[in-house]
Amino acid sequence: MAASDGGSSLPVEVFIQSLTDKASELLGLKKFDEAIVCLRIARELSEYHLGDVAILSVSMKLLSCLVEKVSLETQKDGIKNMIEEGMIIFNQMKILAGKADYDSVAKVYCDLGDSALKKGEVDLALKIYSGALFFVDSVADLLSSLVYTKHQAIMNFAMASCLEQAKKHGEALRHCEISVLKSGALLNMKETAKDRKIKLLHLRGLEKMEVLKYADEIPLPKEHVVVDPPQPSATFLAKKRALEAALRR
Asked: Residue 55 has what pLDDT?
């Protein structure tokens, strides 16, 4: 099977590779629209002519490109369309992924959720994080304890952030507690005990938990009335000081 490339005939796998190479070049130039077009064509051709490994590889690049494009998009309809396209791609990727790919697939899908949340698409972001969390849970036995725990910590914190914005404070608190539990477990693992990002995640989780505990108890302030928030607990302050000291080291 061959494909036409500027008047010449190339084997389809060579043509697909030339499209992905061109997309990489366009990405380097920040020409995301053109890169997405190349990757969409490459993905469609891969589905017809190549195997699962090739489809997964192109899909991963296309999803990453959509994440970049979403972060720059200003039109609400364009943002939603790209996020929804990314969700469709992920649903195919999770079927095609092998054990070695699960970590990368989960990461890039979470990146899409992050982009959606930054653009104010809270419902879509929540749907993405929920899907990513369900996927990670479904392959938990095939992931290392460290990788699984890290995804749990990050995704549950992301879920808590979405639910907090949606004013679902009880659900947000539950996910935040899981995140703090998992990030705390990571700080007790040799490989991640000194990981600055994990320390910050744990600290942010503790802070968010303290806020969420009282979120439904603080009355809405009337005009010109200042409502004092409840004071942090001694346990929270002790943990915060310990983590801040660790981060300074």
From this structure: 85
> 10 Å Cβ neighbour count for 168?
16
Model pLDDT for residues 151-199, shown as the tens digit of each residue: 999 999 999 999 998 889 999 999 999 999 999 999 999 898 889 999 9
Characterize 187-213 residue by residue with b for buried, 16 or more Cβ atoms within 10 angstroms of its Cβ, and e for exposed: beeeebeebeebbebbbbbbbbbbbbb
186-192: list long-range contacts, CB under 8 Å, 24+ apart.
186/146, 186/149, 186/150, 186/153, 189/146, 189/149, 191/146, 192/146, 192/150
167: left (phi over 0), alpha (psi -120 to 50) or beta: left
Kindly report whether the global pTM for this prediction surpasses the value 0.85.
no
Among 14, 69, 5, which Cα is nearest to 36's?
69
Check: CB of residue 70 under 8 Å from CB of residue 119.
yes
Q: What whole-number distance in Å separates Cα of residue 171 and Cα of residue 129?
A: 14
Cβ count within 10 A of residue 133: 22
Query: Model confidence over 77-118: pLDDT tens digits?
Result: 888 898 898 888 888 887 777 766 888 888 888 888 898 888
Angle between helices 196-213 and 145-165 (to 10 degrees): 40
The alpha carbons of the chain give a radius of gyration, in whole angstroms, of 22
pLDDT value at 212 more than 80: yes
Q: Where are the alpha helices (DSSP H) in the chain?
A: 12-28, 32-49, 52-72, 76-96, 102-118, 122-138, 145-165, 169-187, 196-213, 234-248
